[in-house]
Amino acid sequence: MRVHLATDHAGLEFSQQLQEHLRAAGHEVVDHGPEEYDAVDDYPSFCINAAQAVANDWAAGEFSLGVVFGGSGNGEQIAANKVTGVRAALVWSEATAKLAREHNNANVISIGARQHSLEEAVTLVDTFLAEPFPGEERHVRRISQLREYEGTGSIAGKEVLAPTNSDVPAVLPAAEA
């Protein structure tokens, strides 16, 4: 299986060691960076690139999955979820890694490198990669609703608030927060 990886400085060592583990298990690994340690690098572009590669594979009918790392995994998950067609899940246990695939057909997971040992992270990744999506109707229905909203901003037959302004600031000034 093709596995796309990305991280920032906080997960670089995990990513390098995970790549060795995945290749030894027979997976095709695509590293989206960074290539070297930089204490002030920014995760968004690395994680977006890995997520976009997964989305591109799926659009081409090729099955692949992605794994993104960072200190907590939160920002990396947010970055990956900005890519149309990606369902990235933050995983912190074997159960959440399994359910990410089983219930959500997640195609990317995010792991906090400062929250887990390498051995724990390897277990989370292996669990995620091994779990098939069983395709139960209720899960397919929910995933379809997410995809519909992603493409149209609405869900047929459901009440969903319409966006009022697409130019929402990324950060509010402290006085307004």
TrEMBL record:
It comes from the Bacteria. Pfam families: LacAB_rpiB. Its EC number is 5.3.1.6. Keywords: Isomerase. InterPro entries: Rib-5-P_Isoase_Actino, RpiB_LacA_LacB, RpiB_LacA_LacB_sf. It catalyses: aldehydo-D-ribose 5-phosphate = D-ribulose 5-phosphate. It is an enzyme of class 5 (isomerase). One of its GO terms (molecular function) is ribose-5-phosphate isomerase activity. Pathway: Carbohydrate degradation; pentose phosphate pathway; D-ribose 5-phosphate from D-ribulose 5-phosphate (non-oxidative stage): step 1/1. Belongs to the LacAB/RpiB family. Homodimer. This is Ribose-5-phosphate isomerase B. It comes from Gulosibacter sediminis. The lineage of its organism: Bacteria, Bacillati, Actinomycetota, Actinomycetes, Micrococcales.
